[in-house]
Amino acid sequence: LAGTVPEEPRCTVERADASLTYSVFLQRFAFSRPVILGGITDNSAFRALCTREKLLAAFGPFPVRLSTANTYSYRKVDVPFQEYVEHLLKPQDPARLGSDTLYFFGDNNFTEWGPLFQHYVPPPFRIPGTSPAYSFGVAGSGSGVPFHWHGPGFSEVIFGRKRWFLYPPDKTPHFHPNETTLAWLQHTYPTLPPAQRPLECTLRPGEVLYFPDRWWHATLNLDTSVFISTFLG
């Protein structure tokens, strides 16, 4: 379902295509700046398994663990996947606090969801000394995770569009940890001078964003979205 949240006027994250080599990735992006990668993998088979009907048929009765969409303290709630999709997968209420917003992303039971992840083709690049771990999510339009940081990783959109906001480690963004990304976009973002605005871009299905270690980032699903990240720990 398409949402009413706008895309950014201009993508300010660099893009690269399938001609990007691993050595150039390490040299130019791995440790220094984000990049959007297009056409580096083909996940059409995985996408076909991630429709609403296919996911409900495969995982409907299984519990999923939802987290609150705030920055520092996460409350966890377990519900059947079917209940989440049919009753909680709604557009974000701009007035609702992050601590009252439940979000399905990352807490997956790999015993149950493992067969699905076997069909995912991850980005071909790695950071030396790390190993990958998947986080899978389904979320409503206007939902997202407010600013936070962790280790490096990739994020791919399977369905929908996902808007990203990124700051380097030495530029802490101005945000309230219990404010949703949608509220931040509506209230704080318009007040930022151009020099204080984040790098930003909207990912579409098949595109992969790489973000380096300790980069601040916030996400905003412009539509009802399915997405998967590969964290490099």
Annotate the secondary structure layout.
Elements: E1 15-16, H1 22-28, E2 35-38, H2 44-48, H3 52-59, E3 63-68, E4 76-80, H4 81-88, E5 102-105, H5 110-117, E6 132-139, E7 153-159, E8 162-167, H6 181-187, E9 199-203, E10 207-211, E11 216-221, E12 225-232
Parallel strand pairs: 1-2
Antiparallel strand pairs: 2-10, 3-4, 3-5, 5-6, 6-12, 7-10, 7-12, 8-9, 8-11
Domain JmjC: 99-233
Organism: Struthidea cinerea
GO molecular function: cis-regulatory region sequence-specific DNA binding
What do these coordinates show?
- The protein is an alpha+beta fold.
- The protein has one domain: Jelly Rolls, CATH 2.60.120.
- The chain is 18% helix and 28% strand.
- It is built from 6 helices and 12 strands.
- It has a 9-stranded mixed β-sheet with strand order 1-2-10-7-12-6-5-3-4, covered by helices on one side.
- It is globular, with a radius of gyration of 17 Å.
- The two termini are 33 Å apart.
- The relative contact order is 0.24.
- The model has no long low-confidence stretch (mean pLDDT 94).
- InterPro entries: Cupin_8, JmjC_dom, JMJD6_ArgDemeth/LysHydrox.
- It comes from Struthidea cinerea.
- One of its GO terms (molecular function) is cis-regulatory region sequence-specific DNA binding.
Helix content: 10-25%
H/E element sequence: EHEHHEEHEHEEEHEEEE
Main pleated sheet: 9 strands, mixed
The CATH topology annotation reads as: Jelly Rolls
Measured distance between first and last alpha carbons: 33 Å
CATH architecture: Sandwich
- Which outline best applies? globular
Q: How many structural units, i.e. domains?
A: 1
Mean pLDDT: 94
Counting H and I runs of at least 4 residues, what is the number of helices?
6
The count of strands amounts to 12
User: Which ranges are low-confidence, i.e. pLDDT below 50, for 5 or more consecutive residues?
Assistant: none
Give the C-alpha Rg. 17 Å
Name of the CATH first level? Mainly Beta
Q: Assembly type of the shown chains?
A: single chain
